[in-house]
């Protein structure tokens, strides 16, 4: 369970052994058979984390490279696979443990705004490189 607001950097394809709430686990223990082992988000989560942390929102924002080989990681990997890396996943602690709804709301709004800004600037660089 998250104790900070956690930005996930990547999703993993293999290693799923636990049953979900419907008692299902893929027989292959992977999300996408033949898919890459790990897919990184094209969003620079380190930059997003630094920018949001600098805002002084009284919410701790951290980075993770492992969403846990359960439903979160499975969902994130599948989303990254389908979108070619254009996806994000944020783990949020339960309300009141330790943050209020207002604190989490402000932090999530700032995270989304920074992700969009980082993505916009990275796409500008990609497009610029292709034009030459």
Could you outline the blueprint of secondary structure elements for this entry?
Elements: E1 5-8, E2 10-12, E3 38-40, H1 45-53, E4 61-64, H2 71-83, E5 89-91, H3 101-131
Parallel strand pairs: 1-4
Antiparallel strand pairs: 1-5, 2-3
Q: Your description of this structure?
A:
The protein is an alpha+beta fold and 132 residues long. The protein has a single domain, classed as Peptidase C15, pyroglutamyl peptidase I-like (Aminopeptidase, 3-Layer(aba) Sandwich). It has helices spanning 45-53, 71-83, 101-131; strands at 5-8, 10-12, 38-40, 61-64, 89-91. The strands form 2 sheets. It has a 3-stranded mixed β-sheet with strand order 4-1-5, covered by helices on one side. Mean pLDDT is 90; it is low at 126-132. GO terms for molecular function: pyroglutamyl-peptidase activity. Its EC number is 3.4.19.3. This is Pyroglutamyl-peptidase I.
Outline of this structure?
By secondary structure, the protein is α+β, with helices and mostly antiparallel strands.
Helix content: 40-55%
Q: Name the shape in a single word.
A: flat
| Level-2 CATH architecture | 3-Layer(aba) Sandwich
CATH superfamily: Peptidase C15, pyroglutamyl peptidase I-like
Distance between the termini: 47 Å
Write down how many β-strands occur, each being a DSSP E stretch of 2 or more residues. Answer: 5
Family: Belongs to the peptidase C15 family.
GO molecular function: pyroglutamyl-peptidase activity
Keywords: Hydrolase, Protease, Thiol protease
Protein name: Pyroglutamyl-peptidase I
List keywords for this structure.
Aminopeptidase, 3 helices, 13% strand, two-stranded antiparallel ribbon, three-stranded mixed beta sheet, flat, 5 strands, 132 residues, alpha+beta
